[in-house]
């Protein structure tokens, strides 16, 4: 079961449902999905994935991404690192269901999480990391408002090729809120 915490036009963010561990296990062991992620070299069993989802569901700001029309899980998104003192967070996103790739779901989920981060958690800077070979992800992040902030050169090697790890970020003043602002206006 999913609960609509942050709602967009295509998808919504819900608390993570630990019972989805088998679906996640299929996704994280699919190399086409995993190659862009840090866990690509890991072997992930259902038991291990269930423990991961239990940990994520207990951590404050991790969400399932759910298709609004079909009520179907497509991935997850959240803040794996959060620095409350300096108001900075790292964003992580994972779209495991390949049927949803390249259709704007990731961009919308990012917008919803940015809205939550900037307007509810009062963050100032939200950043992420991506490997330079992952052009679809970089394009998605740019559409969501992220800009390149720096890179660690040749930090990832795959199939004999070296790639940069790119850091991208967005500041609160660069973000255009949608969902939270509308909710506040309705309360006035």
List keywords for this structure.
188 residues; alpha+beta; eight-stranded mixed beta sheet; GNAT_dom; RimJ/RimL family protein N-acetyltransferase
Task: Produce a short descriptive summary.
The chain is of the alpha+beta class and 188 residues long. It is built from six helices and eight strands; from the N terminus they run E-E-H-H-H-E-E-E-H-E-H-E-E-H.
Explain what you see.
The protein is an alpha+beta fold. It has a single domain, classed as Aminopeptidase (3-Layer(aba) Sandwich), CATH 3.40.630. It has an eight-stranded mixed beta sheet with strand order 1-2-3-4-5-6-8-7, with helices on one face. A hairpin with a 3-residue loop joins strand 1 and strand 2.
List the topology elements:
Layout: E1 6-7, E2 11-15, H1 21-28, H2 31-34, H3 46-58, E3 62-67, E4 72-83, E5 88-95, H4 105-119, E6 125-131, H5 135-143, E7 147-158, E8 161-171, H6 179-187
Parallel strand pairs: 5-6
Antiparallel strand pairs: 1-2, 2-3, 3-4, 4-5, 6-8, 7-8
Helix pairs in contact: 1-3
CATH topology: Aminopeptidase
- Residue runs with pLDDT of under 50 for 5 or more positions: none
Going by helix content, strand content and strand pairing, the class is alpha+beta
What average pLDDT do the residues reach? 91
- Total strands: the figure is 8
Determine and state the CATH class.
Alpha Beta
The ordered H/E elements are EEHHHEEEHEHEEH
CATH architecture: 3-Layer(aba) Sandwich
**Main β sheet profile:** 8 strands, mixed
Return Rg in Å: 16 Å
Distance between the termini: 32 Å
Assess the beta-strand content as a share of residues. 25-35%
Q: Total number of helical segments?
A: 6
Q: Can you tell me the overall shape?
A: globular
CATH superfamily: Gcn5-related N-acetyltransferase (GNAT)
State the share of residues found in helices, binned by percent. 25-40%
Strand order of the largest sheet: 1-2-3-4-5-6-8-7
Q: Tell me the count of domains.
A: 1
């Amino acid at each position: 079961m999913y609960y609509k915490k942050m709602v967009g036009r295509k998808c919504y963010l819900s608390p993570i449902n630990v019972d989805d561990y088998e679906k996640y296990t299929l996704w994280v062991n699919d190399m086409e999905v995993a190659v862009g992620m840090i866990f690509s070299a890991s072997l992930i069993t259902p038991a291990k994935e269930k423990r991961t989802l239990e940990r994520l569901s207990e951590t404050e700001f991790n969400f399932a991404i759910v298709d609004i029309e079909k009520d179907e899980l497509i991935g997850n998104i959240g803040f794996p690192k959060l620095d409350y003192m300096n108001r900075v967070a790292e964003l992580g996103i994972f779209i495991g269901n390949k049927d949803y790739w390249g259709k704007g779901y990731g961009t919308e989920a990012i917008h919803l999480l940015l809205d939550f981060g900037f307007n509810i958690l009062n963050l100032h800077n939200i950043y992420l990391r991506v490997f330079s070979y992952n052009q679809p992800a970089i394009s998605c992040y740019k559409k969501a408002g992220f800009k390149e902030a720096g890179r660690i050169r040749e930090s990832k090697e795959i199939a004999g090729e070296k790639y940069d790890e790119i850091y991208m970020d967005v500041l609160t003043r660069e973000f255009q809120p949608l969902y939270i602002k509308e909710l506040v206006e309705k309360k006035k």
